[in-house]
Specification:
mainly alpha
């Protein structure tokens, strides 16, 4: 929170994150992500591993650009080859670590290899090819596990059900159509189940009419057949994934007053969106930077159709929170705000009103009061 993620955003957005902004971001993360830090969940270490890989990728491109400006021939020396090899292997190790901690990060590995093929073909840069060595190194324990228990040498995590052979992600897609949001509950006096599924009546009705989806082709056909309904369901998923109500991950007091945490989260999100719009024009876009930006957000996009939990959206929260800290402490942004304060305040009020309305609709299905 304090070191490597701000450095990644600095390299990506071509901005400088000072110590005040880092401290504010650190405090915000300690509050909103308290549960992810206290309990041994997979989301934070997997994301940290991805961030480390993406940071090394941008750092290597930056070093290559700086050296190329001074002396092109240096790129071809043994010293530079060793640096490329070292960075490439560690990129592979961190990407493999992210995947084996949380399988959704397979998308980041595939995306990185695509970027690597582009760099080999267009620029004759081979450092992402070396990441395969790191990936193989990290995959060895999984290969051994798969051979021992599943009689296969595949490096992939085995996610198929032993009962019906259906993959975990396909099951998640089925659940996602029926559920707006999922929370884990320990307040059994208020609610008699550890699993709280906020049901989506439209999605349940659609699946009852169609039947359970047993294949990805069938799922795609189902989505296009009910495009508007599914689009609305997934829009609610996105909002509910960003809507932090309980920062402890496990709910200890289901009916706790949640107004402050909601208000703070919504304001940080809208300031973060302003930060993206404010700083995105500063980015010196390259294929690698575009790839890094997409690879960072791709796992978040892939979980939207599933039974969402707010912890799945940690990457997007962190991005918006850091840029929110950046604009709130920026003199340039404050001047821009005061010049357009009436329009901005109207937009803030409308945004907050829509967020509280959507939140109340989600929690009404369980009869949980708004505040």
């Amino acid at each position: 929170f304090f070191v490597i993620f701000p450095r990644l955003i600095e390299k990506l957005f071509c901005i400088k994150v000072n110590n005040k902004e880092r401290i504010l971001f650190f405090i915000i993360c300690m509050y909103f992500f308290k549960g992810l830090i206290l309990y041994p969940l997979s989301d934070l270490p997997a994301l940290c591993s991805l961030i480390a890989a993406l940071y090394l990728l941008l750092a290597l491109e930056e070093k290559e650009g700086a050296i190329s400006e001074k002396n092109v021939s240096y790129i071809r020396t043994k010293k530079w080859f060793l640096k490329e090899f070292f960075y490439g292997v560690w990129i592979g190790i961190f990407l493999g670590g992210a995947y084996y901690i949380r399988p959704i990060y397979l998308s980041a590995i595939i995306g990185t290899l695509i970027i690597g093929l582009y760099l080999i073909r267009k620029k004759k840069r081979y450092y992402l090819l070396y990441s395969v060595i790191g990936l193989i190194f990290v995959a060895l324990p999984q290969i051994w596990i798969n051979h021992t228990y599943f009689n296969t040498y595949s490096p992939m995590i085995q996610t198929e059900s032993e009962y019906d052979g259906q993959s975990l992600y396909l099951q998640q897609l089925n659940w996602g159509i029926q559920v707006q949001k999922y929370e884990t509950n320990l307040d059994l006096e208020t609610y008699n189940s550890p699993a709280i599924s906020f049901k989506d009546t439209i999605g349940i009705q659609l699946l009852e009419e169609n039947g359970s989806l047993t294949g990805y082709i069938e799922y795609i056909k189902f989505v296009f057949a009910h495009f508007v309904d599914i689009g609305c369901i997934y829009l609610k998923h996105f909002f509910n994934g960003m809507d932090i109500i309980y920062n402890t991950t496990y709910i200890f007091h289901l009916n706790q007053n949640r107004f402050f945490i909601q208000l703070a989260n919504y304001l940080l999100i809208i300031f973060g969106i302003e930060g993206i719009l404010f700083y995105i024009c500063k980015i010196n876009w390259t294929v690698t930077k575009i790839g890094v930006f997409l690879l960072y957000l791709l796992p978040v996009l892939l979980v939207i159709p599933t039974a969402v939990e707010t912890r799945f959206f940690l990457a997007l929260h962190m991005l918006l929170y850091l840029l929110a800290c950046k604009v709130l402490l920026s003199v340039e942004w404050k001047q821009s705000f005061w010049r357009n304060r009436k329009k901005k305040l109207i937009c803030y009020i409308l945004f907050l009103g829509i967020c509280f309305l959507w939140n109340s609709q989600t929690y009404q299905c369980l009869g949980i009061p708004l505040w």
